[in-house]
């Protein structure tokens, strides 16, 4: 299959991971998405925004969704047509359940500020989906081993 210019269409960059709902998983999730965004050409400033939003979403799943109970946080991310879409999913108690520990209440505002689009939806079977969109407008750059996200 070709794009009409004689070359095959580029395959979108994608990630699908599952993490234990423990604080140790937060930096792993952040690093995995950051690495994907870096490969897509995200600027350092955008990488920082993505890192903040992913950290908050995964932390909310662990702290508010599972409330110390065992569980998993699913993370999918895909870059296509200059847009990175990150979805953080849990099967916890749901977004509208009052939190056991409300925290400072800044996480959702931080995520909204860091993303171009934020959608939070309760899952019918229980849990929450957090969908975040970012525009990755810089073309991927040739990055050697020195360039780390």
Structure characteristics:
149 residues, Heat Shock Protein 90, 26% strand, 31% helix, alpha+beta, 3 helices
CATH topology: Heat Shock Protein 90
Proportion of residues in extended strands? 25-35%
- Tell me the domain tally: 1
Shape: globular
Q: What is the radius of gyration computed over CA atoms, rounded to a whole number of angstroms?
A: 16 Å
Uncertain regions spanning at least 5 consecutive residues: 1-9, 142-146
What does this structure look like?
- This protein has 149 residues and is of the alpha+beta class.
- It has a single domain (23-135), classed as Histidine kinase-like ATPase, C-terminal domain (Heat Shock Protein 90).
- 31% of the residues lie in helices and 26% in strands.
- The protein contains three helices and five strands, in the order βααββαββ.
- It has helices at residues 25-39, 44-66, 107-114, and strands spanning 13-20, 72-80, 83-90, 117-122, 128-135.
- A five-stranded antiparallel sheet has the order 1-2-3-5-4, with helices on one face.
- Strand 2 (72-80) and strand 3 (83-90) form a beta hairpin.
- Helix 1 packs antiparallel against helix 2 (44-66) and helix 2 packs antiparallel against helix 3 (107-114).
- It is globular and about 40 Å long.
- The relative contact order is 0.20.
- Residues 1-9 and 142-146 have low confidence and may be disordered.
């Amino acid at each position: 299959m070709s794009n009409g210019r004689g070359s095959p269409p580029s395959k979108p960059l994608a990630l699908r991971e599952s993490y234990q709902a423990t604080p140790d998983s937060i930096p792993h999730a952040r690093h995995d998405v950051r690495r994907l965004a870096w490969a897509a050409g995200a600027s350092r400033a955008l990488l920082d925004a993505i890192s903040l939003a992913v950290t908050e979403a995964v932390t909310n799943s662990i702290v508010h969704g599972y409330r110390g109970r065992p569980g998993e946080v699913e993370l999918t991310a895909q870059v296509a047509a200059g847009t990175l879409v990150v979805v953080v999913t849990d099967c916890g108690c749901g977004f509208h359940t009052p939190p056991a520990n409300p925290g400072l209440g800044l996480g959702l505002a931080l995520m909204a500020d860091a993303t171009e689009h934020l959608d939070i939806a309760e899952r019918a079977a229980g849990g929450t989906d957090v969908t975040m969109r970012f525009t990755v407008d810089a073309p991927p750059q040739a990055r050697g081993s020195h360039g780390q996200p």
